[in-house]
Automatic annotation (TrEMBL):
Keyword NAD part of the UniProt annotation: yes
Function: Involved in the oxidation of myo-inositol (MI) to 2-keto-myo-inositol (2KMI or 2-inosose).
Gene3D superfamilies: Dihydrodipicolinate Reductase, domain 2, NAD(P)-binding Rossmann-like Domain
Family of this protein: Belongs to the Gfo/Idh/MocA family.
EC number: 1.1.1.18
Gfo/Idh/MocA-like oxidoreductase N-terminal domain segment(s): 3-122
InterPro entries xref list: Gfo-Idh-MocA_inositol_DH, Gfo/Idh/MocA-like_OxRdtase_N, GFO_IDH_MocA-like_dom, MI/DCI_dehydrogenase, NAD(P)-bd_dom_sf
Protein name, per record: Inositol 2-dehydrogenase
Lineage top rank: taxon: Bacteria
Amino acid sequence: MTVKVGVIGTGSIGAEHVRRLAQQVSGAEVTAVFDVDRERAIEVGAPVGAAVHFAAHDVIDDPAVDAVLIASPGDLHAEQVLACLAAGKPVLCEKPLATTAESALKVVEAEAAHGRSLVRVGFMRRHDFGYRQVKAVLDGGGIGEPLLMHCVHRNASAPSWFTSEMSLTDSVVHEIDAARWLLGAEIVAATVVAVKSSPLAGGLRDPQIVILETAGGVVIEVESFVNCQYGYEVRCEVVGSTGTVSLDTPSTGAVTRSGGRTQPLPDDWRTRFGQAYLDELQAWVDGRPGGATAWDGYAATAVAEACLRSLATGARSTVALADAPTGSPQ
Ligand SMILES: NC(=O)c1ccc[n+]([C@@H]2O[C@H](COP(=O)([O-])OP(=O)(O)OC[C@H]3O[C@@H](n4cnc5c(N)ncnc54)[C@H](O)[C@@H]3O)[C@@H](O)[C@H]2O)c1
Ligand SMILES: O[C@H]1[C@H](O)[C@@H](O)[C@H](O)[C@@H](O)[C@H]1O
């Protein structure tokens, strides 16, 4: 059976998802798209034969759409996911699920009322081969008891409209989700530590260091540097009671010759996580379990909110998650 997908938002990642769904994911086709930038929607949707609609709800209500992928700006996600749930359609929502914990919780509650899993959140690192290897070692007890975690998340440069807050809600939110998933624990507190800003960061607080704490006392230290200049780099290391496990930058194409060794770096998330996005889409279309749930999206947003409070005040900020509603897929 072919899953007919409607896509809302055909910007950078929306266009990539449309292309993957149409060309690389088996059992899927893109039947409808919408973007407020109509020319962009036509440019992306027409080559794959999708109907180009005039509103998001036209995509959601289209009888030729079985499932919806949302890749619009983050502040629209919760409302659009709620509309998909009202129509009873499965939805893959790009991160973040919502920009406030309150609106994310409404999504969790609306899904629970359906009593079945309809929402996936695009935390694609859960599908990345390297991250999955780290997870397998941790789950197998390969390093004993996890004690602390170091994370590095660097982008070569951020767009002009990027803010210090977005370094937390757009970038660090990936580490928040990855840490929760890898460690199997909720994060209970966040502290943003003031560090010296790069003179090339255009006035942003950049880099930033964030200290997260889990319920079981594991401390996660995250560096987010969105104007590091040199390329895209995502790394992490979990230190356990009997060893460590690390995710390094994939080292394909390293050149060793007289004078030294050079290793190419990905330009950005497109190249570094290309296979993870594809695996995420294929798993979603196949209806396979795994991937981030609405609850995961809610928890990540609640922790990101705590980061924002800490950024504003300089103080440690605690996270108080609501009780999961009955029937909510975890
Ligand atoms: N998982 C990842 O690694 C990853 C990577 C990139 C982006 N994202 C997320 O995907 C989302 C989109 O990011 P992007 O980089 O593609 O941004 P973008 O600005 O390139 O694209 C957003 C698109 O949404 C459109 N849009 C604006 N208002 C809309 C509306 N009301 N309805 C429909 N479309 C609307 C814009 O015209 C634009 O084309 C963000 O939430 C971002 O955090 C995730
Ligand atoms: O929206 C992007 C995307 O989520 C990338 O995966 C991340 O590395 C960037 O920092 C973020 O700005």
